[in-house]
Each structure stands twice: as C-alpha cells, then as structure tokens.
Amino acid sequence: MPVPGTATLVSTNPADHTPHARNGEARAFAEIGGVIFVGGTFTEVRPVSSATWEARPYLFAYQRSTGAMVAGFQPVLDGAVNTLAVTPAGELIVGGVFRNVNGEARRNLVALDPATGATVPGWEGRSDGGVVRDMDVSGDWLYIGGAFNWVNGTAHAGVARLDVATGAIDPTFDIDIAVGRHEVSPYVWTLDVSPDGTTLVFGGNFREVEGLPREQLAMVDLTGTPTLVDWDSNHRFAPGCSSRSFTHYVQDLSFAEDSSFFVVGTNGGTGWPVAYCDALVRYETASRGTNLDGTWLNFTGNDTITSVVVHDGIAYTGGHFRWLNNPNRSDNAGNGAIDRLGIGAVSVATGMPVNWNPRRSGGSALPAGALSWGSAVPVLWIGSDGLYFGHNSDGMGNEYHGRLGMFPHAGGRTIIPRNPPTDTTGYLYLPSATGDLTKIPFDGSTLGAAAVTNQPNLVDAGAVWRVHDRIFWARPVTGTTTGSRLDISLFNGNTVGAPWESSGYNEWFNALSLTGAFYLDGRLYYTRTGSGSNQLFYRYFELDGNYLGATEFALPTSGVTWTGVRGMAWVGGNIVYGSTDGRLRSIPFDPTADFAVDGTAAVVLAEPDPALDWTNRSMFFAAE
Q1: Which residue of 324, 535, 577, 614 has the fewest C-beta atoms within 10 A of its own C-beta?
Q2: Are 214 and 207 in contact, with CB atoms under 8 Å apart?
C-alpha cells in the first residue's frame, strides 16, 4: 500500500521568457547544454509576443535562461516531429513523420548536431515502414515505438532497440506487436524505460505481443535478453470505451524516479469503471500475473487525458479534462469532482489531486488570433528548471503561452506528509454537544482520571479525528447540501481553535453520517450510518487541499459489528473505539493484511461508565 511521502510541486506561474509557436502543437522537448529543443507540428515561432513570426517548421531551439532563439540551429525537415531524445554524447535524436532532413533521405528518424542542426554522418537509424511516435534513451540503447514494420531494413513491428551511438539495430531485441483494434493496423503510441534500465513499458493500438494477449499495454524485462513479462491488465483495456471513436485509449505513461511504479493516462469516453477510460492509473512494476488492476484510479468523468509525467512524488497530467476525482458523473461534475481545467497534479501515493491548479486558460492576456482552449496537451516533460508543457492552444495560467511553456521549479513548494500522533501515550477526548471536552489520560491500555474544559469552538460535533496540529470534525451547518460540513480547527491539547471549512469540494459529503473516523497514511477510515454500513470503510483524503476521495472502499475484516461503533482513534497500530454497548475496546489494525481487523483480538479497555460516554462518536486521541 503506497504511503504519502514528501513531494515537491513546481510553481503554478508559468515562466515569462519562453517562446511561442503560432499553430499546430508542441509535442516534444529536449535539453542540451542550456539549450531547449522543441518539436511538433507548428511552422512559425517567435521569442516574445511583440516579435514578428519566424518560419521554423517542426523543430527549433532556444536558450533556456532567456528564451532567445538559437539562430545557428536550422535543420530542414519535411514533416512533423513527434519525439526527441539526447544521446550520451550530446547529439539530438529526432523521431516523427518525415522523409527528408537537410535535403537527405531520413525516414522518420535522424540524429542531428545540436549546434547547427546538421545531420550526424554515419548514424544509420531509420524507420522504413512508418512513423516514430515515441523514444527513450537508456544507457547505450535507444528505444523507439511507432507505426512501423521495418527498422534499418529489418522487420520490427511497433517497437525496436537501437545502438544509441550508431543507430544500428539490436538483433537481440525481438519483441513485436500484432493485431490492431477495430481493424486498424497496430502501432505503439507511448513508451518509457524505468530509470534503473531494467523495464520497458509501452502502450498503443495492439492486442498481441509475441503471440500472447496484451491489450494496449505490455511490459518487457531488459535485464538480459529482452523478454516479455508475465504482466497484463487486459480486462481493463480489452473492453471498448466509446466504440470506434477511439482506436486505442492508452495515451501516455511515465515511470517514477525509483522505478517501482508507473502511471498511465488514458482517453476513451464512456466505458469506465469496467474499462480504464479517461483516467489516471498507477501500476506497480514488480507485480506479475494476468488481469492486474491499478493500485489507484483517478477518473475525469469522460474527458481525455493526453499526457502524464511523474516527478518528485507528484504525477502531473494534461489533456482537455475539466475535473479530476470525478467517477460519479459523465460529462458533468459529480460528487467529489475537483475543478482542474486541462492540467493538474496528483499524489503518486493515492492518485488524489493536490492543491495545484494553474488552469489551461489565457484569460484576457491572449493576443488577437490566439486560441484559448484546445483538445490536447501532447507532452509534459521535466527539464532541469521546471515542468515543460506542449499544447495545441495558447493560454496557460491566465497568461499567453503559445503552444508551449514551462512551470519553473523556482516558486514551487514542498508537501510534507502528516499523520495522527504516533505516540502510544496521550489522551482520549470526548467532546459534548455543549462544548465541554473531557480529557482522559491513556497509555494504550489503561485510563487515568478525567478532566473537563469548555471549548466553545467545538459544539455539536460529529466524528472527530486528529492530524498533526489540528482536528477535523463533522458539524451541522444549515443551508449546505447535506445539512452538514467537514471543518478544521487547530488544537494544541488545551484549546480548540475557531473552525473553518475544510474544502468547498467536500460539500456533497454527509459528514454527520460518520459514527467514527481516523486518518492514516492518505486514507480516512470510518464507520457510518446508512445501507450496507456494517463495514470499515475508507476514502482517500488529500491533506494538501483537504480533498475527500469520491469513491468509497471497504476493508476486509472479521468479527466486529461495525454498525455499533461510536468514535474511533488510531493509537500505536490499534483502533481504539467506543460502542453502542457502552464499552471501550482496542483491536490491532493492519490495512495491508488479508483481514485488516480480526475481531477475536479485540480487548475491552473500559466497561460502561456513567461518567464517560463511550457511545460518543466524537471521541479522538491526541498526544497532548
């Protein structure tokens, strides 16, 4: 079970010095020696909005620090650039949809001098049989994927490996795709090699790899002779989404820096949750088997995701979506939906959106003729100074950024993970409806003498749980959708601070239905009233923004009547809970076990006591 760790976000304010492209879209970035290279389908560029447009079709370069065009880099291509890569020797590899480069035949693949754009003599790589859609360099190898059947005159369907220094084909890489969807010829659309160089994952329009069923996604072990891995998620990618509207719906994928997982972004329209359409999905690299489910999912509500990149604890994503955390409606905001216009960021541990929301919009800053909104963000890419984006429109962060731009690392911020107290000695608290707060010393097994203080800021509380320096608590609020609200108050052990609303995005949730709750490692665990309530439930809960997950899950447990629980706290690996029978109990809790709770291990800590109401759903634990 992934646990939230420290994460770092880039700034929400795009850099002001990046150039602009006039038309088409930016599809690829690379960086060599302080110079940024940009490829795509555009034909004209300019360094600033006041400058005259300059013809630089498909590929140009600019100084990273100033945005000034590199005048000496002038390659001539007769078709679009889809992907860029850099060799260990510092040469620029270009893949795309072209036949000639600098007046020479170079089918869809070429190596260029990064200073002049001249073709590197002797580099022999070429995609004879079709376009190159994506590439990655790992060690001495260049991996390419696309709609080809021949590479360097050798039969290779969809994916191949070349010597990065010479462009020569690697004959030991014998992996081929077959059988396209909807009678369309197969192709690879996206690929990524794990940073440790041991694993290749690729996605696109195919149903077989090496004669075995692989629906749109496949994994290859690179530690020896490249070998197809016993890994698939066929049951999620075999079903059709919006019929023939989408030939394939795996759009992009990205490994984490530690190579332990990768995140996939999809389009596809209707079909979820049976099929992973219009979603972000995390998979574990070490998993093996057939019909594997994602570790977590984030559905947009039937809006397309076109790009994803994982960096420093965050998965950034782009597309033409309007919301994230939106599994409950189609083409509208449902319960839990969080507004994210075309670009967003989620925790890699839970898939929940974090509080980062620049929006794909130019506002009033767009010049005449600029396009405010487009269908795609084809690329998100991490450079040395920030997160680069290429799109087919001109607005980002309420500013003009024609077809490309960059969110700098400078001005970003760090997300520190928070949890309930790890102490096993502290206090149990019992709030009353009138503001009295009973404080009972507790060492994990025995109770001390109670003391009462009045806390006028904590009145009519429902379920309460402690995280770091604050409490979250349910309260009745008239005029809200459910008549309740989830609020936050600072708490230092002596004083409950004035409450404020956790997030307006949580208004759909009936907080007063909770009969007990505690937070741990990115999840809110709870019991509740209503149908099917005899379970221990959880939702993801993102503290950076205080967003509640839109999907309810139930943990496997045994031997506990959860409908009788009143008040819960996590204390040193145990759930301490009150009950409608008036008793206080403790039971070991392990959310990763086959049964997270085994009722036979429950221990009674206190019998019914007229002075201490263990039927109080507001009970919580704190170390002070």
Answers
A1: 535
A2: yes
Question: Strand, coil or helix: what is 168?
Answer: coil
Measured in whole angstroms, how far is the alpha carbon of residue 96 from the centre of its chain? Answer: 27
Q: Dihedral sign, CA of 426, 430, 431, 436? A: negative
pLDDT of res. 129: 84
- Could you read off the pLDDT of 146-179 as tens digits, one per residue? 999 999 999 999 999 999 999 999 999 999 999 9
**CB neighbourhood size of 590 (10 A):** 13
Query: Hey, how many other C-beta atoms are within 10 angstroms of the C-beta on 71?
Result: 8
Q: How far lies 511's CA from each of 475, 496, 613, in Å?
A: 7, 19, 21
Tokens of 400: 């003009």
Tokens representing 237 are 């990618």
Residue type, 545: G
Torsion angle of alpha carbons 164, 167, 171, 177, nearest 10°?
90
- In 312-385 the beta strands, taken as DSSP E runs, fall at 314-319, 323-324, 338-339, 343-347, 379-382
The H or E element that residue 236 is part of is helix 234-237
Residue 187's nearest CA partner among 247, 124, 264, 271 is: 247
pLDDT in tens, 15-34: 999 999 999 999 999 999 99
Radius of gyration of the chain from its Cα atoms, rounded to whole angstroms: 27
Backbone angles phi, psi at 95, to 5 degrees: -125, 145
Q: In a 3-state reduction of DSSP, which class is residue 72?
A: coil
Instruction: Work out whether the CA dihedral 131, 137, 140, 141 comes out positive or negative.
Output: negative
Residue 326 exposure: Cα atoms within 13 Å on the Cβ side: 24
For position 245, what pLDDT does the model report? 79
pLDDT at 555: 98
Cβ within 8 Å of residue 196, ≥6 positions away: 259
- State the amino acid at position 93 in one-letter form: I
All residue ranges of the chain with pLDDT < 70 are 243
> Would you say 187 and 127 are in contact if contact means Cβ atoms under 8 Å apart?
no
What is residue 183's three-state secondary structure?
helix
- HSE-CB at 134 with a 13 A cutoff on CA atoms is 24
SS3 196: coil
Give the whole-angstrom CA distance, residue 262 versus residue 248. 19
CB atoms within 10 A of CB 424: 15
Nearest residue to 385 via CA among 404, 408, 405: 408
- Residue 270: its pLDDT value, please? 86
**Region of 183 on the Ramachandran plot (φ > 0 left; ψ -120 to 50 alpha; else beta):** left
Tokens 């979250």 belong to which residue?
A: 472
Per the CB < 8 A criterion, the answer to whether 62 and 51 are in contact is no
Q: How many residues does the chain have?
A: 624
Q: What is the largest CA-CA distance in the chain?
A: 92
Phi, psi dihedral angles at 244 (to 5 degrees):
-85, 0
What gap in Å lies between CA 461 and CA 498, rounded to an integer?
A: 13
Cross-strand pairs, 405: 389
529-534 contacts, C-beta under 8 A, 24 or more apart: 533/562, 533/563, 534/561, 534/562, 534/563
- Cα–Cα dist 352/345, whole Å: 8
Cis amide prior to 273 (ω within 30 degrees): yes
Type and span of the H or E element at 237: helix 234-237
